[in-house]
Specification:
Structural class: alpha/beta
Largest sheet: 7 strands, mixed
Order of helices and strands: HHEEHEHEHEEEEHEHEHEE
CATH class of the domain at 86-270: Alpha Beta
Strand content: 25-35%
Strand order of the largest sheet: 5-4-3-9-10-12-11
Oligomer: single chain
Radius of gyration: 18 Å
CATH superfamily of the domain at 86-270: Vaccinia Virus protein VP39
CATH topology of the domain at 86-270: Rossmann fold
Number of strands: 12
Shape: globular
Helix content: 25-40%
Number of helices: 8
CATH architecture of the domain at 86-270: 3-Layer(aba) Sandwich
Distance between the termini: 52 Å
Length: 271
């Protein structure tokens, strides 16, 4: 029982730290700081299910700022992961005009790239219906974005997708929790997408696709078309050794960073 109580307060502290850190480090102005802090506290108090609260706040990073639509406590966790832990590298690369965001979720990664590359066109891929609603709202604030409501992976056709109604970031092509709801979504290979969109080169490809990365990369041959690649390898959901080996074979400039979660890594690769 004491272990359970301790675990509860550890989770509560982690969530409060999310809210504090995003409010302190990401708010662009005093009003946004107040909205982010008290909105986050409300999300914590209502975290047994999605609350009815939603709001916009202006966030700032890379000496730039933009509105963002907040709808859930997990948004704060994503901000901490993407902006404050900074897995996609703080370096700004030259001549970035085309960005692919695989597993776009609600748009936090798109915001990151928008603030760093104001002129780039962002192609966001997200099959989860709940995430899509928030992503589309944020696209209105981010601009110069195209949203695709299908998964990108190792095949073309239709697959089972397991949407988490409480945590969109936990949705996956694999059944991981009892609360996940099975639905059918369209899936396309990366080669098919490039061909359909008539795109010859991707300047930055970001992936966070909950274990589907192994099939994605095993069935792709056009690595010379991707200049910079960032993403998460879920070793608990796929064969990480195989996935990392494929990327190492195709990128001479390759780096691997272990995450706090066991068997998960961030990778960066450059041509």
């Amino acid at each position: 029982m004491l272990k359970g109580i301790y675990s509860f307060f550890e989770r509560l502290k982690e969530r409060f730290d999310w809210v504090r850190d995003v409010s302190v480090h990401m708010a662009a102005d005093p009003i946004s700081k107040v909205k982010l802090f008290f909105g986050g506290i409300w999300f914590i108090l209502n975290d047994t299910w999605k609350s009815r609260l939603s709001f916009t706040a202006t966030v700032s990073h890379f000496d730039s700022q933009n509105l963002f639509y907040f709808d859930d406590l997990s948004d704060y966790g994503l901000f901490c992961e993407i902006f404050l832990d900074n897995p996609y590298s703080p370096k700004k690369y030259n001549n970035v005009s085309t960005i692919f965001d695989l597993g776009a979720n609600v748009g936090v990664s798109a915001l990151y790239f928008r603030l760093l590359y104001p002129e780039a066109h962002i192609h966001s891929f997200e099959p989860d219906p709940s995430n899509l609603k928030q992503l589309k709202k944020n696209a209105g604030y981010l601009g110069n974005m195209t949203i695709y409501d299908f998964a990108v992976g190792g095949e073309n056709g239709e697959i089972s997708f397991y949407a988490d109604p409480h945590r969109g970031s936990s949705s996956s092509t694999q059944k991981l929790r009892d609360r996940q709801l099975e639905l059918k979504v369209q899936i396309k290979t990366l080669a098919t997408v490039l061909d359909e969109l008539n795109i010859e080169e991707i300047d930055i490809l970001k992936f966070d696709i909950e274990g589907s990365e192994e099939k994605l990369f095993a069935n792709f041959a056009g690595y010379k078309k991707i200049r910079h690649l960032f993403g998460e390898v879920h070793g608990d959901l796929c064969n990480a050794e195989n996935t990392i080996g494929i990327l190492k074979e195709n990128y001479s400039n390759f780096h691997l960073y272990p995450l706090d979660i066991e068997n998960r890594w961030y990778v960066t690769a450059h041509n």
